Amino acid sequence: MKIAQKKYDLPNGEIAIIKSAGADDALKVKLHREATSAETHFMARYPEDGEFNLERITNVLKSIEDSERDFMVSAYIGDEMIGDLGVTLVRPHIKYLHRGYLGMSIRQKYTGMGLGSFMMKVALEQAKVNGFEQVELGVFSDNDRARHLYSKMGFKEYGMNPRAFKLKDGTYRDEIIMVNFLD
Ligand SMILES: CC(C)(COP(=O)(O)OP(=O)(O)OC[C@H]1O[C@@H](n2cnc3c(N)ncnc32)[C@H](O)[C@@H]1OP(=O)(O)O)[C@@H](O)C(=O)NCCC(=O)NCCS
């Protein structure tokens, strides 16, 4: 499904348009994800993992667009995507229908300006409207900014997956598992 369009005034004077990426935006999503996966080690993929295939992204966006539950909260400045947030069903099985999984990324240049908090607020409100009872996510243990934002927005840490990620330099990171109950 697509969310209603909104705008967010960045403190630098630029205006971000918040809407849902659709299948037509696949190239913008691809470029955004390639960029954010190279900017920090906090994303699940390295650019060379090769999952930023245009056809695959188009199909994923189409299926989110067609879904009654799943949605994207995407931020654009002009034609460029600068923020990407998705909430999707953990599994399409009856016993899992109350659980949404959230992932997000913002271009480094636009971090620390309140955009992530705004996108998260929009996402949590929409998730509730769409019938999700809880939103879950996983975050790198050393991602202090993200952990702060998620705690501020009502997520609680409930678990840790030790050594979930091994970076190219051979060091490991734990994954902190968080949940936000929407009731
Ligand atoms: C994590 C991310 C989504 C946050 O979005 P954002 O727009 O930068 O966040 P906001 O500006 O809305 O809020 C950031 C908050 O973290 C705080 N913060 C910033 N750096 C921090 C740090 N090193 N430690 C703790 N808190 C920090 C800010 O003060 C702010 O808190 P406040 O609103 O209470 O003042 C964004 O930085 C990002 O995409 N980073 C790169 C990719 C990534 O980490 N994705 C998440 C994967 S789980």
Give the topology, please:
Layout: E1 6-9, E2 15-19, H1 26-39, H2 54-66, E3 71-77, E4 80-89, E5 99-106, H3 115-129, E6 134-140, H4 144-152, E7 156-166, E8 172-181
Parallel strand pairs: 5-6
Antiparallel strand pairs: 1-2, 2-3, 3-4, 4-5, 6-8, 7-8
Helix pairs in contact: 1-2
Could you give a short description of this structure?
This protein has 183 residues and is of the alpha+beta class. It has helices at residues 26-39, 54-66, 115-129, 144-152; strands at 6-9, 15-19, 71-77, 80-89, 99-106, 134-140, 156-166, 172-181.
Overall description:
The chain is of the alpha+beta class and 183 residues long. The chain has one domain (6-181): Aminopeptidase (3-Layer(aba) Sandwich), CATH 3.40.630.30. 28% of the residues lie in helices and 34% in strands. The protein contains four helices and eight strands, in the order E-E-H-H-E-E-E-H-E-H-E-E. An eight-stranded mixed sheet has the order 1-2-3-4-5-6-8-7. A hairpin with a 5-residue loop joins strand 1 (6-9) and strand 2 (15-19). The chain is globular, with a radius of gyration of 16 Å. The mean pLDDT is 97. Bound molecules: coenzyme A. Coenzyme A is lined by residues 36, 40, 42-43, 104-106, 111-117, 139, 143-146, 148-149, 152.
